[in-house]
Design a protein that fits this description.
The protein is an alpha/beta fold. It contains 23 helices and nine strands. It has a five-stranded parallel β-sheet, sandwiched between helices. Strands 6-7 form a two-stranded antiparallel ribbon. It has a two-stranded antiparallel sheet with strand order 8-9. Helix 18 packs across helix 19.
Length: 485
């Protein structure tokens, strides 16, 4: 690769999207379809789970875009999504009081003794019939819930008539819910809310064309807490987890580069290995990466090493970029967030341009390491936002080296009075969604961190912390990526 071409690739990598899963629907060229995600999109799949950054909010936003539904229907008929599939929002990351109740409204209704199932039944009735029904005359969510509660037969008829019309038209109506972690500050309330939504989703299964689809974080998917009602297993057993195996991460990268705002033609030439027929353009001008470039890891590896070089150092003993990057971005189960993956490559490109502008490849191996450091900072910020208590526990481990015996970690927590201070904050209700096993002491907290894939229990019972968390929290590891100081 010439220096000129390396600079072009670098600029394309620098232009990779900084945020891929929040708010507005994505451009069509950025829509990529991993196999597990296609299964999750089917109308009959009610529960979709995934780690932070796995794509839950991405699909919540993307499915609301008609052009995306049209693309799915055209390319993936088995997904069950069609261009005329109707999408309504039942809850989401953006406040929309006219569409669904906010966290405070939900809390007030629950405090009044209203069953969570009745609240969600009202949300569905509002979404399906607000334009034509007396519900439109009800001024707020309390009044709407009261009306639905006292007119059960009338609401059932609304659902039945809406379902019959949809069946005649040969299409589905799906009410989608996301960001349910923002619906409550404590686990008991959140589980009540999710349980009620599951009950409502099960109610809709009696109809042919009315469906509910919810996106849950993996820690929210607790069958014992949310599935203790008849026939809950019918929904929970068919839940789909959004996964990102290595080949799908690189498939996403090719998709984004082929449709990059800069040097997209050069990228298509590079990825296709000079064979332009391997890439296909849709009528709307977006380029799609064919399955051969996703499932053939040998071709992926060759294409990526043309960008990043063959080794993570001066020889093969340091590892290979194609495998090294995902290996250092995975959690304790090896799950990699595509957001972290793209962030690492974008940061590596920026650093390569600044530190190694004449390097023969677009990415220098030292810049890749610093890109992983930046991705770790982002992942730590996300963890801090989702679980402030995890941030406190890991902040007090700064300077430690892993893997290590759990006793070493427990000693640091005792020295810093970490659990004592956390207990005081929990008592004062200053901690959102605290550790569920906190009453069991340090071992209980360890179990909670393991369930979040932040701690990894090794075969000899020592604790390891994956690089994607370790680096950002300033913890050491012999031979590993340097921690952020």
């Amino acid at each position: 690769m010439t220096n000129v071409r390396a600079a072009e690739v670098r600029r394309a990598l620098e232009a990779l999207p900084a945020e891929t899963s929040f708010g507005d629907a994505p451009p069509l060229g950025n829509v990529y379809f991993p196999q597990s995600h296609l299964k999750a999109l089917h109308p009959d799949v009610a529960v979709i789970t995934g780690m932070r950054g796995a794509g839950k909010t991405f699909w919540w936003a993307a499915l609301q875009k008609h052009a995306v539904r049209e693309l799915i229907g055209k390319r993936y008929e088995r997904s069950g999504i069609r261009h005329n599939t109707e999408l309504r929002t039942g809850f989401g990351p953006l406040p929309a009081i006219d569409e669904y109740p906010t966290k405070d409204v939900l809390h007030a209704l629950l405090e009044d003794g209203i069953d969570a199932r009745m609240i969600w039944r009202t949300v569905l009735a509002w979404q399906l019939a607000r334009e034509i029904h007396i519900l439109r005359q009800q001024g707020d969510w309390r009044a709407r819930v009261s009306y639905v509660r006292h007119h059960p037969e009338e609401i059932d008829r609304i659902f039945a008539e809406r379902d019959a019309k949809l069946a005649d038209e040969g299409r589905h109506c799906i009410v989608i819910c996301d960001a349910l972690d923002r619906s409550a500050d404590d686990w008991r309330t959140m589980y009540r809310i999710i349980r009620g939504l599951l009950q409502t989703a099960l109610d809709m299964r009696t109809y042919r064309r009315l469906r509910v689809k919810m996106f849950l974080r993996t820690d929210q998917f607790n069958p014992a807490a949310i599935g203790d009602f008849p026939d809950a297993s019918k929904l929970l057993s068919s839940a789909v987890k959004l996964s990102w195996p290595r080949k799908e991460l690189y498939g996403l990268l090719w998709q984004l580069l082929c449709n990059a705002p800069r040097q997209s033609e050069r990228m298509r030439e590079l990825i296709g290995g000079g064979q332009s027929e391997l890439l296909t353009a849709d009528d709307d001008g977006t380029w799609q990466v064919p399955p051969a470039l996703v499932f053939d890891e040998a071709h992926q590896r060759e294409a990526f090493h043309a960008i990043a070089g063959e080794w993570m150092g001066r020889d093969r003993r340091r590892g290979f970029p194609y495998t090294w990057i995902p290996n250092h971005l995975g959690d304790a189960e090896g799950n990699v967030s595509p957001r972290s993956f793209i962030a690492a490559l974008r940061a590596a490109a920026e650093d390569s341009g600044q530190q190694y502008p004449r390097h023969e490849c677009a990415l220098h191996y030292e810049s890749i390491k610093r890109g992983v450091q930046q991705a770790s900072r982002i992942r730590v910020a996300e963890l801090r936002e989702d679980y402030p208590w995890v941030d406190r526990l890991l902040q007090d481990l700064q300077g430690a080296t892993v893997p290590c015996p759990f006793e070493d970690i427990e000693w640091r927590w005792k020295q810093n009075k970490t659990l004592t201070r956390l207990d005081e904050d929990i008592e004062q209700q200053e901690v959102k969604l605290p550790p569920r096993r906190f009453a069991e002491g340090a071992e209980g907290v360890r179990a909670d961190l393991e369930s979040l894939n932040v701690f990894q229990r090794l075969h000899d019972a020592r604790v390891n912390i994956p690089d994607v968390f370790r680096v950002g929290y300033g913890l050491g590891r012999r031979g590993g990526v340097r921690p952020v100081r």
